[in-house]
Amino acid sequence: MHSGTFFIGFMLPLLLSANSWSQPEAAFGGNELSEFEEFSMPVVLTATRIQQHQADVPASVTILEADLIKQLGVTSLSELLRYVPGMMVGSDGNNNSDAVHYHGGPAAFPKNLQVLVNGRSMYRSVVAAVSWFEMPVALEDIRRIEIVRGPNAASYGANAYQAIINILTKHPADTYGATVALKHGNNGEQNIYLKQGGSIGKTDYRLSFSQKSDDGFAAKSDTRSVQFLDLETHRPLDLSGELETSLLYVSASKELADQVTYQTNQNKVKEARLELGLRWTRDYNSRHQLKINAYATQYNQRQKIAVGAVPVAFLDDDLRALFTLNPNAANALTQGADPSPFITTQAQLDLATAVITRYPGAAGSVPVMGTINADMDEYRFDTEVQDTFMYSPQLTLVSGASLRRDAVDSQTYLGGRLNNNTARIFASATWQASAALNVHLGLMTEKESRADTVYAPRVAFNYKLTPSQSVRAVYSESVRSPDLFEQQADWTFTLDGAQSSATLNGATFYQNQQGPNNLDHQFIESYELGYYGRVAWLNLEADVRIFHEHQADVYYQTLRLAKLTTEENLSTRFEGVEWMLNFTPWEKGQIRWNAALVEAFTNAGSIDRESVLLRVYAQGTTTLSWLQGWPLQINSALSYMKADKMDQLDADPAGRFLIERIDGRLAKTFNVGRYDMELSATFQRDLSSDPYVLPGNVYEDKSRVQVGLSFNF
Q1: Tens digit of pLDDT for each residue in 103-122?
Q2: What is the mean predicted confidence (pLDDT) over 62-66?
Q3: Which residues pair with 96 in a beta bridge?
Q4: Torsion angle, CA of 531/536/539/542, rounded to 10 degrees?
C-alpha cells in the first residue's frame, strides 16, 4: 500500500480531534455544550439491526439522505452509488444493466453485494445478482440509503459478502398528498413518477407509479424500459404493535446486444415481478421488541428467440451426445473438419460416423426455422423473526432466525425445476464496556439444501475520542453461496415448432453445458481500522476506512454455451484506504468528497483471467461535489467524478479505460398557494472519450441533458 494512504488514514483523525485534546473537559461530562449536542449525529440502523449514533457503529457506513439524493439529480440508483467511497460502476453487457461493485469484480452479473429494500433482498435466485435498472423503488420514495462498507454476514447471512446496500423508503404518514414528476432527456430518457398518499381510517398509505426508459449506448441495441406500481401501508395496532404491508408489481423489457454470451443473440427480454410483503412489530416494553418480516416474490422472464437458418446437422441428437463426450470432435464436425484427431473412444467414433453418414455432401447445411423458448420462472418465500432485548442500558442483544425457500423453473438454463432451502440463525451483542469503549460481537450460522453449514463472525471495538468522534477496529468474515446456475446449470436450446425441408434427428442445439455441482462457498475475511467524526467548530463530517480484505475459494464462470468453464480456487486481495469528507463552509453550501485508493491482487494465473475477474476495478476513484442553496428557492449541484484506469489489469494498455465526467443540476421551486412546482435541469458531460469498461460502451452524445418538472399538491 502506498505510504500516502497510511498518512491520510492516520493523520486525519488526529487533526480533526486536536481541538478535543486541547479542551478535554468538553469531551465527556461537564456543563459545557458538547459537540454531540451542538452538532447532532445521524442514526444508523443497518450495521447491527439496532439504532445507533454513527460514532457508535462498528462498521463504515455511508448515508445518502432523501434531500441529498434530490439535490444531486441522479437518474438511477447505480449512478447514485458513485457518491459512495470504494463503489465502482461499470456496465453489464450480458444483462443490459449496470455492474456495481465494492472495490472490484467481474462485469457479468455482479454478485458480491447484498441489496435490500425495506429488509427485502433484491437478488435473484438463479444468478444471485440484482438488475439495477429494474430495481423496484423510485428515487422519489427513498427516505435514505445506508451502505455498510465491508462484510456483514453476521447480521444478514450469506451474500452480505463485501457490502450491504439497504434502501429505506419514506413512511406513508410522511407522504400525504399527490405528486406528478416528468423528466425527459436526449439519451432516450423518459421518466414519469406519480404518487398519492393519504389515510383510510387508521391506515396510512402511499401508492406510487414509476416509468423510465433510455436508449443505452450508441453502438449497441440496448433500449430498456421499466414500469412499476408500489403500494405501502402502515397501521398501528393495539398493545404497542404496528403492521406494514407492501404490494409491488414490476413490468420491464430490454434489448440485448449481438453475441452476448448468456442470452446468445440480439433479442428482447420481458420481465414481470410480483411481490407481497408483511412487517409486524410489537414493543412489549421500552426494552423488548419482536419483529417479523415475511415476503413472497414471483419473477417471470419471457424470452422468445426467433431462429431463421440454423443448419439441420446442428440439431442432431447424435452430434449433441458427441459434444457431451468430446466437444472438440463435435465442433470439428460442424466446421467441416476431420474429427478423427480428437476422437479417443469407440463410442465417440460411432457417434461421429452416424452424423457423417446421415448428412452426406451439403445435406447437413439445410436450414431449420423455429423459436427458442428461454423463459424462466423464480419464486421466493422468506420469513424472518428478530428479537431485540435491552438487558441493561449498557448491553443490547439481538437474535433471530430466518427460513427461505427458492424455487426456479427453466427448461433452457436449468433443465427443469429446482428448489433450494436456506435456514439461518443470527445473534449479536452490543456492550458499552465503559464511557468511551463499545464492544460488538456477532455470529451467524446458515445451512442450505445444496451446500455445507457455514459460520460468519464479527468482532468490533469503538473507542470514543469525544461524544461525536470515534476510532474503530473491526474483524469480520462472510461467505457467498454459489447460485443455482453456477452450481447446477443444465443449459440447452431447443427449437419449438422446428420446420425444415430436411428430416430432423432432434430439435436441440448440439452445444449443451452442465454446472460443476460441487462448488463450495466463497470466503472473505476483512480487517478494518477506521475513524468517524463530526466536528462542530469546522462544520465537518469525516469517515476514514483502512482495510485489508482477502477472498478465498473464488470461482468465476465464462457464461459461454460453447464452453461453460468454472474457474475455481482463485483468490483476491484488496487493501487500501477510502474516505468521505462533508464540509459546510458557508450558509446553505456543502462540499462532499468521496475517494478511495484500492490495491488489488489475484492468483488468477494469467493477466487475461485477472482482467476478467476484476473487470470493474480502478486503483483510484473520486467524486467531489458542491451543493448550494441560493436565494429565490434555487438549488444547484456540481460534481466531478473520476475512475482512473478502469480494467487496468487488461493485457492490452489500450483496453484500460478512464472514466471522467462532470455532473450538474439546477432547480427552481415555485410556491403557488398550497401547490409546489419545481423546474430542474441536469446534465452529464464526459471528459474522457474512453468507453464505460467494455468496448462499444460509448454514449451517442458526450453531453447528456435532462429537463424535469414536478408538482406537489
Answers
A1: 988 888 888 999 999 988 99
A2: 95
A3: none
A4: 0
- Domain coordinates of the chain in residue numbers? 3-306+374-712
How large is the average pLDDT for residues 410-418? 93
pLDDT one-digit tens code per residue, 635-690: 999 999 998 866 555 445 555 667 899 999 999 999 988 889 999 999 999 998 87
Rounded to a whole number of angstroms, the distance between the first and last alpha carbons of the chain is 54
Query: What is the distance between the alpha carbons of residues 473 and 547, in angstroms, rounded to a whole number?
Result: 10
For domain 3-306+374-712, the CATH class is: mainly beta
| Helix or strand holding residue 235 (H, E) | strand 224-237
- Residue 140 is classified by DSSP as G
What angle, 0 to 180 degrees and rounded to 10, lies between the N-to-C axes of helices 317-325 and 327-334? 140
Tell me the whole-structure pTM to 2 decimals.
0.90
Q: Which of 61, 94, 89 is nearest to 77 (CA)?
A: 89
Pairing of strands 52-53, 43-44: antiparallel
Distances (CA, A) of 238 to 42, 245, 281: 30, 17, 11
Q: What is the rounded CA–CA span in Å between residue 164 and residue 478?
A: 12
Within 146-240, where are the H helices?
A: 153-156
Tally the residues of the chain: 713
Residue type, 684: Q
Q: What is the C-alpha separation between 629 and 635, in angstroms, rounded? A: 5
Over residues 485-491, the mean pLDDT reads 91
